[in-house]
Design goal:
By secondary structure, the protein is of the alpha/beta class. It contains seven helices and ten strands. Bound molecules: NADP nicotinamide-adenine-dinucleotide phosphate (NAP).
């Protein structure tokens, strides 16, 4: 990291955007641009003038706008870390724009290192129980009342991890939206004889914000589209 901070743009200036702004200096970044629903309706803030000199952007906005934001930033050649969830049905469109413009995106439903390690715990449990048909699987996730998508992006990523590990039976998923929970995910396996539970509980949002800033630094030197759970253990 050089002594001169790299210039960071925040797309989305809500709970996560504001926390990333606080932590940015400790990762060698200076926040040079903040876009929100007032100065970026329909992506009007994503201009060459606004992004002149910006080294990287981080998007923690809303599912409805993130894919359009990402396409426009790819056209501007700005590397991007996307933390927003609930938009992966538009991943192909974003990938096409990134590849066409030789730009870069890293996206992740969860930038916490602990959750990314937890994916591996769940994969191992799912693999061990894939052939043990007496075990049924269940998932529970809880978040604060403001979270817009359900099940969470992390829950969907966990379901993918279970499938990839060979667990092909149904997984009953329960979600809760109330209070201030920053994020709880629990996977369980239940049989007549016993229950296995593995869980991750975020204590606050700092793990997400530090992970997003590490992802932003990593993507600055790359080209292409990357999913955070595939690269997190290669970060500094
Ligand atoms: N990957 C991770 O580790 C991680 C961790 C935590 C959260 N998340 C996800 O990150 C997203 C943001 O979470 P949050 O808690 O920060 O939500 P938030 O507090 O609601 O912040 C989102 C902000 O984006 C603004 N926005 C709306 N339209 C915009 C536009 N066109 N351009 C730029 N900004 C716009 C919203 O304004 P309005 O509210 O006025 O619409 C709001 O201020 C969610 O999808 C959440 O699930 C991911």
């Amino acid at each position: 990291m050089s002594d001169i901070p790299d210039k960071l743009a925040l797309v989305g200036y809500g709970r996560m955007g504001r926390l990333i702004e606080q932590l940015a200096p400790s990762h060698g970044f200076a926040v040079a641009l903040r876009l929100d629903e007032f100065n970026n309706p329909d992506g009007v803030g994503l201009t060459p003038e606004n992004f002149d000199g910006i080294n990287v952007a981080v998007d923690f906005s809303i599912p409805e706008v993130v894919a359009d934001n990402a396409v426009r930033l790819a056209e501007l050649g700005v590397p991007l870390a996307i933390g927003t969830t609930g938009w992966l049905d538009q991943l192909d469109r974003v990938r096409e724009a990134v590849e066409r413009n030789d730009s870069a995106v890293v996206y992740g439903a969860n930038f916490s290192i602990g959750v990314n390690a937890f994916y591996r715990v769940v994969e191992a449990a799912s693999k061990a129980l894939a052939a043990q048909r007496e075990y049924d699987a269940f998932m529970y996730e809880a978040h604060h009342k403001y979270k817009k998508d359900a099940p969470s992006g992390t829950a969907l990523r966990l379901l993918d991890a279970m499938r990839e590990a060979g667990y092909s039976r149904p997984v009953d998923v329960a979600t809760q939206r109330s209070g201030q929970f920053p994020g709880i995910h629990e996977i369980g396996f239940d049989s007549e004889a016993d229950t296995i539970r593995v869980s991750h509980a975020a204590r606050n949002r700092s793990g997400f914000a530090h992970g997003a800033l590490k992802a932003a630094r990593w993507i600055m030197d790359r080209k292409g589209v990357f999913e955070f759970s595939r690269i997190w253990d290669r970060l500094d």
